[in-house]
Amino acid sequence: MTMGHNDPVFAIGIVAQMCGVHQQTLRNYERWELVIPQRSSGGTRLYSNRDVELIQQILRWKDEFGLNLAGIEVMSKLLNRINRLEAHVEDLTVEIVRLREGNTQTRLPG
Question: Most buried among 3, 48, 56, 98, using CB within 10 Å?
């Protein structure tokens, strides 16, 4: 069995050490809904590799741009919206290509 990028594998203490932050910082990120770890059946927070990357991105935004949590929340929402729109454009592009190919295949020779 292979471990997926979104599989919950790290406890909060490990993630705090990996990212160089206090556990309370990670709880605050969850409170602000910036990073929402999965929970074990016992309620333990479990973070995925994707969650760790997101935390590291948040820390870079804080360092590089001096953003507070409210600014990070806005930036995160905007980036999520951009990602959804890009995925939608990709879906529409595939549909256009499919329709064009279908039209050329159904045309009768002139």
Answer: 48
Total domain count, the chain: 1
Burial grade of 35 (CB within 10 A; 0-12, 13-18, 19 or more): buried
Domain region containing 59: 10-106
